[in-house]
Design a protein that fits this description.
mainly alpha; about 0% strand
Amino acid sequence: MTAFYSTFFADPLYYIGYLFAFCTAIGFIIFLRGFLSGFGYALALNGHDEHMDKFRTRATWGVVLMAYTFCMWELLRLVVSWFGVGTLNSAAAFAAALGFIWLFCQLWRAIFPAKA
């Protein structure tokens, strides 16, 4: 157990990266469940549009979970790079910033929907 602690404190981003990869894999599975479940109905066009909402919701939540995990990973790398622990890719940090703006806009639209 001491070896685990010493390797964790030597390079914590390695193990935290596994956690983020696991969350991204769950998001991808949620996306596939929504996309592949509704794909047959979309090809056959034999279902009502109201029945497709649950498939669209699953696919959207999967994509949002993957995007959120990527943005959190890049934010973590940005903060850790200030202390000299890791390196930062500027293009990925810019993409993460755009992702946070997009996620915030989606959250704002969900909390305060437009009035008809």
